[in-house]
Amino acid sequence: MNASVDARADLLAGLLSLARDVSQARSEDLAAYAIVNQTFQLLPYHLALLWRPADVGGGRITHASGLAKIETDSPFVLWMNALAAHRIERIPEARTQPAMLSAADFPERLASQWAEWLPAHLLWLPLPSPGEPWPGVMCLARATPFDAHEVALLQEAAIFHGHALWGWQREHRNLRARLRKRWRSRRMRLGVLALSLLLLLPLRLSVVVGGEVVALAPLVLAAPADAPIREVLVRPNQAVKAGQPLFALDDTGVRNRLAVAAKSLDIARADWLRSSQKGFSDEGSRADVAALSARIEEKQAELAYLGELVQRLTVKAPHDGVVVFSDPLDLVGKPVVTGEHIMTLADPFRVALQAWLPPAEAIALAPGAQMSLSLHTAPLSSVPATLDESSYETETAPEGGSAYRLRGRFAAQPPQLGMKGTVRLYGERAPLAYHMLRRPLAALRRLVGF
């Protein structure tokens, strides 16, 4: 007697535990997963399946015991869908009455595969609900038949299974019904139409990058010789006149070479004079006179070159302009080689707008595209410009990273040379929707690689 009471208590506890797991599921998918897996605590079975009807007719297997996800195109699922559809279409009480099924209850095209996919016995257990929508059918399969007590127990479990799924379905259908009702309203349709027209509104593409005012065709002032810089005679961005000294290289080495060349010239002249005097009596000395004359010319040319080089060691401005360099302290004492860039001489009235466009921000730009510069010193106003040229390949930008170099000309009075700010570049017109989705789509393309 006590054993029988304990067994019934265990069944009741299992039934209540199953009801709690299903009713407390946080989603319809988790509730269905609990139905096909947790029912095993009431009685053993080989396989549990959940068949759910579709909104527009038909239905399909959505969950199976032991599986987190159903492959909808697998042969077993396709066969089981056909099996359920056959019973639903031909048996009117299939929606309400449980039934014990076997291969003999189906036509040959379905029965021939029964042994391949299912054990001998299948319990068809409809899930009841208070109303529409109907939640579906639970199918339990095992090798031994289900007795009447087990079927009665499973019918009790099917009641709260059906109520749980019906509640989730009703919530989803109510949401869809509310959306359909709102869509039927004139205000909603007008709102969607207005939003669609707004998203199609053509606006000009634009991008903001960094830029600065640079010299147009500046003159590079390079080192005339291999020597350290002795002194810098101007300040950065100073206006200079033609012929004004800018910087001077150390002339110690060149003056020493000049002194040696002068001494060598004196020696060559003395040798030439001696050979000329001896040439009256010595035939060999007369033959050396021509070679010594050529040597004198060579030393004269070397002396003239070194004399000119001494003068060139002090570099002067070839024309009026503004000298552009960083800091005199960085240059004084620095050893340089011939041709090394020291500073730049620019015409302050011949300037251009230079901007650097990162590849991630690139838009289609054609020569003549509109540009505007907002200086850091005057952020509330902008200076108009037009695009003249853009680099074909990316270059290393001053701030680091690769970017396309853009250069434009100012349409009005240009700003001061060296001023920096932000440059807005204007491209072609595109719908507002494209403006909103351009960056997310570009980021998605880089992420997934399509």
Automatic annotation (TrEMBL):
The transmembrane residues are 190-221
The protein's name in its UniProt record: HlyD family efflux transporter periplasmic adaptor subunit
Q: Which domain of life is it from?
A: Bacteria
Q: Which InterPro entries match?
A: UPF0194_transport
User: What subcellular locations does the record give?
Assistant: Cell envelope
Chief site of localization: other
Q: Does the keyword GTP-binding apply?
A: no
UniProt keyword list: Coiled coil, Membrane, Transmembrane, Transmembrane helix
- Identify the taxonomic lineage of the organism of origin: Bacteria, Pseudomonadati, Pseudomonadota, Betaproteobacteria, Burkholderiales
Answer whether the UniProt record assigns the keyword Nucleotide-binding to this protein.
no
A cellular component term from Gene Ontology for this protein is: cell envelope
